[in-house]
Amino acid sequence: MKALVLSEYKKLDLVEVAKPQPSEEELLIKIQACGICGSDVHGYDGSTGRRLPPIVMGHEAAGIIEAVGTAVSDFRRGQRVTFDSTVFCGKCFFCHRGQVNLCNRREVIGVSTPGFRRMGAFAEYVTVPARIAYTLPDNLPFSHAALIEAVSVAVHAVSLSGLELEDTVVVVGAGMIALQAARTAGAGKVYVIDQDDTRLELARSLGASEVLNSRDRAVVDAILGLTNGRGVDAALECVGVAASVEMAVESVRKGGAVTLVGNISPTIEIGLQSIVTRQIRLQGSCASSGEYPTCISLMSRGAIRVDPLLSVVAPLEEGAAWFRRLHDREPGLMKVVLQP
Ligand SMILES: [Zn+2]
Ligand SMILES: [Zn+2]
Question: How far is the CA of 106 from the centre of ligand 2 (A)?
């Protein structure tokens, strides 16, 4: 089969490799669409150390079941499916609590570290454990289903934020899906902060009550102005650098919650007194744990739309070129989905 292999950092080759065989608890899936994740682009140049070559990347995928392992009873050949990017063990302390994203033996499809290597979906076929797969409704195209992981991250973050009906929310950094997830969860007003006017316009069209460009406005003052000087009930921080986290913290009201999703900077300095004396809750959010069926349903009924984020659907053969363009941060280029 064909596979796009990261042979060395910044070098992707489309090569012929052996077709994988499903073990007894696995599915063999014929990939129909696989999204290039930001984490793949950061792994591609070696900056994260989580894509040790050689590796087939790709964990945001959907396809058709080609074969099922002998111990798999609830799937059959021909079904349209997607799968979680996280492979959890199902046996550890955290898995037993339902926090599968925190599994002690967590592995990620299409990721290689010194501890594990899992071949991903920038290939004609991939094998995954049946326990992380979900069937897709017919009205959800494969190219949209390939964005479910991104939706699940946002839905998980919103579920941890403690949002209540009619709460005011600020989304810091192009969180188009976080914005829609907050709306769906019952937020009254959602304000979106970003540095890119194109993305802010998109946010407006997806239901943002107000959009604010942090390049040309004192956004914290603006948020306070929009909330009678009080601040919003909750902030969703989708960037993860010192300035954006500070914006989120200073935009919430006393007793409010800041949910941290972005983590571009491994460490930042933070205004401790403002958090302690205003009793702000800081909540980290990692991947998702069990939100896939909810996300499939939200996307199927149009409550969360991913089509406006989809820039290109291209053949796998063009994968190397699209990785380069994403790595070069081509303006306006958002989600790229590859089709083997
Ligand atoms: Zn991803
Ligand atoms: Zn586990």
Answer: 6
Q: Please state, in angstroms and rounded to a whole number, the distance separating the CA atoms of residues 243 and 219.
A: 11
Q: How far is the CA of 224 from the centre of ligand 2 (A)?
A: 43
List pLDDT tens digits, range 61-100: 999 999 999 999 999 999 999 999 999 999 999 999 999 9
- Cα(113) to centroid(ligand 2), Å: 18
Q: Quick count: other Cβ atoms within 10 Å of Cβ 115?
A: 9
Strand partners, 285: none
With residue 151 as reference, give the H or E element that holds it. Answer: helix 148-161
User: What pLDDT was estimated at residue 47?
Assistant: 86
CA of 135 to the centre of ligand 2 (A): 23
Please say if the pLDDT value at position 141 is more than 90: yes
Neighbouring residues of 175: CB distance < 8 A, sequence distance ≥ 6: 154, 192, 236, 238, 261
What is the pLDDT at residue 314? 98
Q: What distance in angstroms lies between residue 107's CA and the mean position of ligand 2's atoms?
A: 10
Q: What percent helix, strand, coil does the chain show, rounded to 5?
A: 30, 30, 40
Q: How far is the CA of 91 from the centre of ligand 2 (A)?
A: 5
How far does residue 228's CA lie from ligand 1's centre (Å)?
A: 38
pLDDT at residue number 217: 84
